[in-house]
Amino acid sequence: MTYLITQMLLCLLLAALFGFLIGWALRAMKCQGEIARLEAEWNRRLAAAETAGTTQKRDDLKIIEGIGPKIEKLLNDDQIFTFEALAGAEVNRLKDVLRRAGDRYRMHNPKTWPDQAKLAAEGRWDDLDELQVTLIAGRDS
C-alpha cells in the first residue's frame, strides 16, 4: 500500500515539475515576443517624434520651492516643461493654472517661481539655495 502511494506521489511530483518547466518555457517565449514588439513600437514613436521635431526637453521643476509632483504635472499640461519657460511665465498665468486645477491648489503662491526658475536656468544653484532658505512653500517668509 505504501509502495502504491509513493508511486502516485512520485508521478504527481514529476507531472507538476514537467508542467512547471513547460509553462516557464512558454512564458519566456511569449515575453520575448512582447519585448520585441514593444521595442519596435518605441523605436517607431521615437523616430516619428524626432522627425516631427517634437522631442521636448524637460527640467525637474520640483527643484523649485513650492512645486511638487502634482503641480509639476499641471505646469507640464500647460506646456511649461523647462526652467526657461517657467522663468518667462507671468505670475497671473501660473495662478490661473492653479485656479483651474481646483480649490486645493489655491493656497499655493507662485510669485517666486519665475525668479527661482531663472536662477536654475542660469545654473546659479548657490543663489537658488540662498533664495529658497528664505522661502516657505514658495512664499516669501
Structure annotation, total helices: 6
How many E strands? 2
Number of domains: 2
* Strands side by side in the biggest sheet: 1-2
Structural class: mainly alpha
Kindly report the oligomeric state of this protein.
Answer: single chain
Low-confidence sequence ranges? none
The portion of residues assigned to helices is 55-70%
From the alpha-carbon coordinates, what is the Rg to the nearest angstrom? 28 Å
Characterize the overall form.
elongated
Helix/strand order: HHHHHHEE
Q: Please state roughly what percent of the residues sit in beta strands, choosing from under 5%, 5-15%, 15-25%, 25-35%, 35-45% or over 45%.
A: under 5%
Distance between the termini: 85 Å
State the major sheet: 2 strands, antiparallel
Mean pLDDT: 86
Explain what this protein looks like in three dimensions:
By secondary structure, this protein is mainly alpha-helical. It folds into 2 domains: 1-55; 61-140, no CATH class. Helices cover 67% and strands 3% of the residues. It has helices spanning 2-52, 69-77, 83-88, 91-101, 113-121, 125-133, and strands at 135-136, 139-140. The protein has a two-stranded antiparallel ribbon. The radius of gyration is 28 Å and the shape is elongated.
Task: Compose a concise summary of this entry.
With 141 residues, this protein is an all-alpha fold.
List descriptors.
mainly alpha; single chain; 141 residues; two-stranded antiparallel ribbon; 6 helices
SSE map:
Elements: H1 2-52, H2 69-77, H3 83-88, H4 91-101, H5 113-121, H6 125-133, E1 135-136, E2 139-140
Antiparallel strand pairs: 1-2
